[in-house]
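Quick one, tokens below. Sequence please?
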């Protein structure tokens, strides 16, 4: 009772604790923070040197005594201590460094998260000074954030492609009829580009370079205009810096496997839903959200593979946190859809 009374005086938060990025939504204010899920730790004294944007700048450039850690892997907590520190930092930053605030928190998690992983997320949030913690499936949050009519007696299909996981769900009457979480998403695409460049050009490139290549040249279906860019890295055999030129068709070849796995997961979902809901999805189509939805022509590839209308959410990067944010002012619906 005391905790609930305390939370009335705090700013409730919705958090999309993503593998690549963490977004925080404050009730009444909207999205107040969107930063990379990275923590830089000083190994000598175990102190946090930087979090978020500042820590990302250090990736691949840290001296021996500092390690840049990604606490999230495949949508779940891989490093409990770093995740706790990162969450605490983001909550304080969202509340302008007020340390006495104990907010109610809604967190989006992958649909196939285990009981142990759920407990890890909840414990991290409680240790970061949350008064109450509610978990909801990312696909459900993304559907709400994308404006789908989830409470209607009709099937709505959402494909949320994040950094670590792709969550696919069909939702009807505020319940998840079908959900599948595959651990192939934006990070797998970055890794595929790193491996391709190493294999084809004997060049080692870092994660940040791979991400830039994906955003500029990456596509799932041929582009109308050809694109190319210079990529700098270290030559495997010669050991010295080298520059190569990559084009969009090479990057499309590099991304072929992760894109194929995502498309196959969507097709599997379509095969497993009840016939009545299949008819609804046929009429309404598929909505894509998450950073991976911004891969050039991925909607076109899905359209051709499924024969269904496909559209990208209005604000794909923020769909999950916006949906979780809406739950802060609709606790009846939150109780109905939150994971125990």
């Amino acid at each position: 009772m005391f905790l609930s009374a305390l939370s009335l005086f705090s700013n409730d938060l919705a958090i999309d604790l993503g593998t690549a990025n963490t977004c925080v939504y404050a009730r009444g204010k909207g999205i107040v923070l969107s930063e990379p899920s990275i923590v830089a730790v000083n190994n000598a004294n175990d102190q946090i040197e930087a979090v978020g944007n500042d820590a990302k700048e250090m990736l691949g450039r840290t001296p021996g005594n500092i390690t840049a850690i990604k606490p999230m892997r495949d949508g779940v907590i891989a490093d409990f201590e770093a995740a706790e520190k990162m969450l605490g930092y983001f909550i304080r930053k969202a509340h302008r460094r007020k340390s006495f605030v104990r907010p109610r928190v809604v967190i989006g998690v992958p649909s196939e998260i285990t009981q142990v992983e759920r407990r890890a997320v909840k414990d991290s949030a409680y240790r970061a000074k949350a008064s109450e913690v509610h978990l909801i499936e990312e696909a459900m949050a993304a559907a709400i954030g994308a404006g789908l009519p989830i409470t209607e007696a009709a099937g709505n299909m959402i494909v949320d492609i994040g950094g670590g996981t792709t969550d696919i769900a069909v939702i009807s009457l505020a319940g998840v009829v079908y959900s599948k979480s595959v651990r192939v998403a934006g990070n797998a695409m970055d890794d595929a580009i790193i491996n391709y460049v190493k294999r084809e050009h004997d060049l080692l490139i870092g994660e940040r370079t791979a991400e830039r290549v994906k955003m500029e040249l990456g596509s799932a279906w041929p582009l109308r205009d050809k694109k190319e860019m210079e990529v700098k890295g270290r030559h495997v055999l010669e050991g010295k810096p080298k520059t190569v030129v990559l084009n969009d068709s090479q990057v499309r070849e590099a991304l072929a496997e992760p894109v194929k796995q995502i498309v196959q997961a969507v097709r599997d979902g379509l095969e497993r839903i009840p016939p009545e809901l299949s008819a609804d999805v046929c009429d309404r189509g598929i909505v894509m959200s998450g950073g991976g939805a911004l891969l050039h022509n991925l909607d076109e590839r899905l359209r051709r593979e499924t024969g269904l209308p496909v559209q990208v959410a209005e604000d794909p990067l923020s769909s999950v946190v916006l949906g979780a944010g809406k739950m802060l002012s609709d606790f009846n619906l939150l109780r109905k859809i939150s994971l125990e």
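The longest strand covers residues 175-182. Residues 186-256 form a domain with the Actin; Chain A, domain 4 fold (CATH 3.90.640.10).
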